[in-house]
Design goal:
The structure is a homotetramer.
Chain A (H helix, E strand, L loop, with lengths): L4 E5 L6 H18 L2 E5 L18 H15 L3 E4 L6 H7 L2 E4 L7 H9 L3 E5 L9 H9 L6 E5 L2 E2 L5 E2 L4 H6 L5 E4 L5 E2 L8 E2 L4 H10 L4 E7 L13 E2 L3 H17 L5
Parallel strand pairs in A: 1-2, 1-12, 2-3, 3-4, 4-5, 5-6, 6-9, 9-12, 12-13
Antiparallel strand pairs in A: 7-8, 10-11
Helix pairs in contact in A: 1-2, 1-8, 2-3, 4-5, 7-8
């Protein structure tokens, strides 16, 4: 199959300049390593742990920025949608619409996203078994849209903890759709810091490498030039300046995995 | 404190006659036993396991039925809301708006529900620790609305399984808000039947009794005159004709628990 | 059925005087409340979190103390066994031999315990489903011994955490053997304090009451006159002077539950 | 570091001829691929799901076979021990003594194994957090023995299920001891077949590859010429004739991982 694609960016949009800076750095790092690249950022963090968490630029300004990134950097883009009403506008501005994990069973959202014809990346809920994804997929397929990606982002494991079950990757791959490993959110510690969500940044490259060795189509990683000052998900982000080395390393495992597919 | 309240009804609305039949039977059973009663039904099942699952009457017809039940039977009513846009209309037709567990971190929905001034019943997400509920609560409180109920409905426990953690009840009670035990959904087996969700009906009275003995404000139970033919959640519903005996039994434990509160 | 029995004592034996003091206080509290009583203590803590944890009096001195408690106080006694070789000696000194949860699948231990003819209390492993207990039971039954008790003490729930699944109680009761709720160990936080195991003492009465309301045969509670100075399991023990009120409260729920059995 | 070692064999000993056949085939496959090899088999399955499960050759005959395999094939050997009393004899007959996961906190067993001076392979309990292994390790180290291996074999994940948490591998590696991935038992479904334990054989190579890509010292795999007729753990064993290709594939990932270590 195709070489690995990185879906990467700064969790939430901060400004046009910031988005361009990250997209440019990531696009170059991916091109240098022979990887595909999709810029990821959120215009609205609709389910922050607490009300005081920053939510981002909002839909109007946010979609303008996404559109501009695509135009200037020339890379496809991804953002997440939280309501059926937003889907049409979002589909104008980005290439991939992402269904958040908590919302992966909301029928109206899946159908509205599917109807735009855009690529739909469904994050498997923390509460969902991988073998239950076909029920979710068929809600999108019901619109005639088969441009679907499936993402593993960890399963609930007691309170304030997730575990990434790597059986999930080949299980979801049996649907025939490309599978993405979210190396950032699978090492979250939900609510683990009281008013915000903690994380274990050091394990994100571990998750990414293990997934790539199994032959995933893509890896989702959030990155920031200064993660400890990022407005959300900082504790599990990878510093931007470490990304080129990480991507190069992952591409070696990707080449091996794509030449020797792991089948179940 | 006050005697136990039952929140009970047929999962999804089937017709006005059906809703009235159940509400009347339940209101009588509760009155006979000295329990409070709130009629519960959904106008739209927005996150069915699969697309082919029946979704109910829809918002217009559904809210008319809810309004009619309240008028005819004289009991307060509860339904669940799935989008911020629906909150205002729903608040006209029912007394309690319920936030579904999967949506318990969706800030806009919590704020919109709070702004109506109606009572808001928040179901704790299957992925959420009980001590993280204050973050959720504060989203509703931010609107000035402090008419809040908190419901335990089980936590993810591996795949296709939930476990009801009874530490959750006194933990959530420390917020000062009334705590409800959802005896029906905490014995769900999510996705456990392939295209639909299974359940363990026999354990619902077990969950209810254990919770009542700990002094909860209310118990949430779905009931149907013929659970195996109910359009959703049949496998974990209690047959309607068994409810009077169950309520009478629960009221004995309730009297004991309210006289001898269980504090942590 | 019969009124509730308390299985209670100081986790590990400290001295004869200490054991007698606790047994006497507990026997009186149980008699006053109409409850049965079994003195519990360990002569050897064979699986402490760390090597430096105190292990107790050892088998020779320990069994002498157990024998003396039984003679002086006149109550049945329980201790746990860790190797098949110890079973015969232990059976001379106590009435009930307890199989530790970690060891509940060790065939030789179960058979050796069964062969003594003593009552065997099997703690369900943290890793075992309640419906898998019949396989464990049959190992004891193979010796012709059907004096068996089954104890719930929590199931693994992520790392460093347990959850008490109350479906386990009626599920195990279907075997026909008496079921005990271990209110102390089900609120452990295994390894949660680094070199020792933490606990949530405040939840032990919650676990006990919920279980009693479901009609269990007995409750297992560890107690100490000064839990914070107990050599093991202090964080989840109930202070001895709080036991009389707790037992009285539990007996009220027990009377109700035994008059109105909860069946599945 | 050193190239990957395979710890592999037939779960339980069936006969000398059978053991030699497997050891010879595996030793050749490993030598051909440049991998290290340790023959693994059990002389006694002391914790079978049910009493009627076959337990193997027993200690006397079993150790004779292990000794003979070592002499004839010239490879190191591993077996598991279940009681402190067996340790001295076992240490005469094999090179590596394995502590079963259920017994990983049994102090006397760890100390007795350590005192033999043999290599001790500790399987992390299904109920234990990886960061709690130092407490376990120090029990062996207390004997002066620092020939220790640490093995991941899955963590409890609800009932009848395990999940392999790959964060466990680098976490345990921080102790400085070699880490082994048990690709066979981490895909068990404990008790999942009623009277025996099920498994998901198809995922064992997935677990092995992901672990090797993270740079583990070894992989533990059970194999049999006819897994469906093996006396234990058949459902998760790899057929013997598939092992050479699997090992060759793993060695490619091993070379990459050892050249580019994954650190946390």
């Amino acid at each position: 199959d195709l070489p690995l694609t990185l879906i990467a960016g700064p969790c939430q949009l901060e400004s046009l300049d910031h988005a361009l800076m990250i997209a440019e750095a990531m696009a170059k790092a991916c091109a240098d390593a022979g990887a595909g690249y999709v810029f990821k950022a959120s215009y609205d963090k609709a389910n922050r742990t607490s009300l005081s968490g920053m939510r981002g630029l909002g839909i109007d300004e946010g979609l303008r920025v996404m559109d501009e990134v695509r135009a200037e950097i020339g890379c496809p883009t991804l953002t997440d949608v939280h309501s059926p009403e937003h889907c049409a506008a979002v589909a104008q501005a980005v290439d991939v619409m992402q269904i958040p994990a908590f919302l992966c069973r909301q029928t109206d959202l899946l159908v509205a996203a599917g109807e735009t014809g855009a690529v739909v990346n469904i994050k498997k809920g923390q509460f969902l078994a991988p073998w239950d994804m076909p029920n979710v997929i068929s809600k999108v397929e019901s619109t005639g849209n088969e441009n679907i990606l499936l993402t593993e982002r960890g399963a609930s494991f007691g309170y304030n903890a997730l575990v990434a079950d790597f059986r999930s990757l080949p299980t979801m791959a049996k649907t025939g759709y490309p599978v993405i490993m979210d190396a950032t959110h699978s090492v979250q510690q939900p609510g683990g810091q009281g008013g915000s969500t903690g994380g274990q940044r050091e394990f994100a490259p571990v998750m990414a490498r293990a997934a790539v060795s199994l032959g995933v189509a893509g890896v989702f990683i959030e990155t920031h030039e200064d993660p400890d000052r990022a407005p959300s998900d900082g504790p599990n982000m990878i510093p931007l300046d470490q990304m080129p080395a990480l991507i190069k390393s992952l591409m070696q495992f990707d080449a091996l995995a794509k030449a020797d597919p792991c089948r179940i």
